[in-house]
Write a structure and sequence with these properties.
There is one protein chain. The chain is α/β, with parallel strands linked by helices and 233 residues long. The chain contains 9 helices and 9 strands. The strands form 2 sheets. A 6-stranded mixed β-sheet has the order 5-6-7-3-8-9, sandwiched between helices. The protein has a 3-stranded antiparallel β-sheet with strand order 2-1-4, covered by helices on one side. Strand 8 and strand 9 form a beta hairpin. Helix 4 packs across helix 5 and helix 5 runs parallel beside helix 6. The two termini are 29 Å apart. The structure holds adenosine-5'-diphosphate and magnesium ion. The site of adenosine-5'-diphosphate (ADP) has 11 residues, from strand 2 and helix 1. Belongs to the ABC transporter superfamily. It comes from Aestuariibaculum marinum. This is ATP-binding cassette domain-containing protein.
Amino acid sequence: MEPILSINNLTKNFGHLTAVKDLSFTINKGNVYGILGPNGSGKSTTLGIVLNVVNKTSGDFKWFDGNTTTHDALKKVGAIIERPNFYPYMTATQNLKLVCKIKGVDQSKIDEKLEIVGLLDRKDSKFSNYSLGMKQRLAIASALLNDPEILILDEPTNGLDPQGIHQIREIIKQIAEKGTTILLASHLLDEVEKVCSHVVVLRKGVKLYSGRVDEMISSHGFFELKANNQEAL
Ligand code: ADP
Ligand code: MG
């Protein structure tokens, strides 16, 4: 197994509040790894730490074989951790060209990425004319422009209608099938069950489970876990 991200005893305190406590899990190549837990359980904080936008308090994380600096590793990561932000008066293609310039990546892949998210036929529409689901799909296309080894998504279906939710989940599955590792934070068990191969379950920053999703669901402890996590599961 080829490690993509190893998290070891990671802790993050915000003043008196411990947002992430002694967290360990490893994502291997090809995993579709979920971070599951109710609001406030430390999902976004964990993503922020490994993406170098939040400072850890203690513990460690290692990208790839551990010989890559975080700065270099992040060039091989695609991430959407906030609402997609594009220029409303520009088309999808124009917006992605700008992203390519900023990221310093080749513009020749734009159509290929728009195709993956089902937006190729709408590439010349202005961003402001896109539905919320289309905006989120464009954000995924944008995150794929550097051909990342791993795609990180924080609550990718939040706020979408059922059709939009279904489309995003299908796109994530297709991206995973083509070999991209995925890390997905969600408060929905349903989402993790449908999309993920592996999961770490968090409650108030503490790990309740990590491992395969199918093993979690078939394990004796699952219903107890469910009962203790009504909010999230
Ligand atoms: P989740 O993404 O699972 O909803 P978060 O990681 O956003 O959870 O938050 C975990 C906890 O840390 C919450 O109690 C939240 O209020 C707190 N928190 C997150 N970011 C900050 C911050 N910048 N300052 C203070 N507290 C924070
Ligand atoms: Mg969050």
